Amino acid sequence: MSLTKIYVIAIAICFILFAGCVGSDDSNIPPEDTTPVPTATYEPDPQPSETVANTIDVETVGLNEILTIQNPQVNAEISVDEVIRGSRANTIVAESSPESDMFSSEPVHGYEYLMVHIRIKNTDDYSLAVSPYFDLPVYASGGSYDQESVDLEGYQVLEPTTLLSDEEINGWIVYMVPVGERVVLAYEPLLPDEPLGFIRLS
After folding, report:
1. 118, 141, 181, 202: which has the highest count of C-beta atoms within 10 A?
2. Would you identify the CATH topology of the domain 60-200?
């Protein structure tokens, strides 16, 4: 065998060995976990924008006080006259759930049900759309919580509707909130889609 052939074979062997060293072996690398991890959306206490703040006085009231909303989009009066929370609310929701319900009605660990009785009156000359799920979130511990879809036996639930001028509606909304935390109800209609007022619930 000629010296040239020996050199060629030696170079080829070195190339193969080098390629094997730099190549990555993925057989021992565990696959990435692609399971989505649920995360809560937290935000600072809601505040009206400068546009809203310049056109109306955003106020905060307590139980049995009337929150008066007056701006170019919405004119209404909102009040809360009763709140049920904790073990009593948990029991009411549990006893109201049908036995055939495949989902547990018990609150998540560290949370409790909050039942709020709300009155809304349209004081505008035009009709007012009321959507409890979108218009009336509550805030606690920097988090926002919407209406829970649960049955309430013996309690009239506040349903989505449209109020004519001077028309009024009342009913219950159920939320799931952190145990023992301070909670405020916000009125956030679709327009302008930001807090126009607050009601302290605890």
Report:
1. 118
2. Immunoglobulin-like (2.60.40)
